[in-house]
Each structure stands twice: as C-alpha cells, then as structure tokens.
Amino acid sequence: MNKIRKGDKVGVISGKHRGKEAVVSEVLTAKNRVRLEGTDLAKVKRHVKPGVDMAMPEGGIKELDVTVHISNVLPIDPSTEKPAKVGFKTEDGKKVRVFKKSGNVLS
C-alpha cells in the first residue's frame, strides 16, 4: 500500500516547485514518481515524432504535467492545511492511512 495515491492533494516539500500544492493525477510506481496537475505548477514540453503518438499523428510539441519524485511530496492534512507525514493503522480489519501528527484518517 502506497502512502500517496491518485487524487490526493499533496504539497511539494523540496525541489524546484517547493511550497506549491497540487493534485496527484498518476502514480508511476516503477519510477517512484508522481505526476502532478495544478495551476501553479510548470508544464514540461516533449517533442513528439510524427506517427508515434496517436493523439498527435502529425507530431509536434506536447505539454505534460510535471513529474516529481515521490519522496519530495507529502499529503496535505486538512486540519492544519500543511503537508504531513503519513503512517498506517488497522481499523475494523482494514489497513488505512493516518496522519501521524493529527491522527486523522486519510481517505
């Protein structure tokens, strides 16, 4: 079970985008990275050859949401509105994610 999942609101704690908040749109577990979508985050541009990407058969420049290493983001605790560490706890026989400081369950 990952501490960060798709749809979580996270804060970037280090790197170029430090201090910004975004929503996780994709978790890339093989690369230990998360794709973030947010209005205050930069986009990255990728050049696509013709015929390689079905969405752009003619090729061109494609804008993607930024990817950040998973260790550089933390979920935002709704009670404090700040990034906080997450742990695990079993409740009613199910493993749930819990904020370590406040004890709130992360849905």
Protein described:
This protein has 107 residues and is an all-beta fold. The protein has a domain of 72 residues: SH3 type barrels, CATH 2.30.30. 0% of the residues lie in helices and 50% in strands.
Beta-strand proportion: over 45%
Q: Evaluate the radius of gyration.
A: 17 Å
Q: Numbering strands along the chain, what is their spatial order in the largest sheet?
A: 6-3-2-1-7-8
Q: Output the helix-strand order.
A: EEEEEEEEEEE
Which of globular, elongated, flat, extended, rod-shaped describes the shape? elongated
CATH architecture of the domain at 9-80: Roll
Write the layout of secondary structure elements.
Layout: E1 9-12, E2 21-28, E3 33-37, E4 43-48, E5 60-65, E6 67-69, E7 73-77, E8 82-83, E9 86-91, E10 94-99, E11 105-106
Antiparallel strand pairs: 1-2, 1-7, 2-3, 3-6, 4-5, 7-8, 9-10, 10-11
Give a brief rundown of this model.
This protein has strands spanning 9-12, 21-28, 33-37, 43-48, 60-65, 67-69, 73-77, 82-83, 86-91, 94-99, 105-106. By secondary structure, it is mainly beta. It has a six-stranded antiparallel beta sheet with strand order 6-3-2-1-7-8, with no helix packed on it. Strands 9-10-11 form a three-stranded antiparallel beta sheet, with no helix packed on it. Strands 4-5 form a two-stranded antiparallel sheet.
Structure keywords:
107 residues, mainly beta, SH3 type barrels, 3-stranded antiparallel sheet, elongated
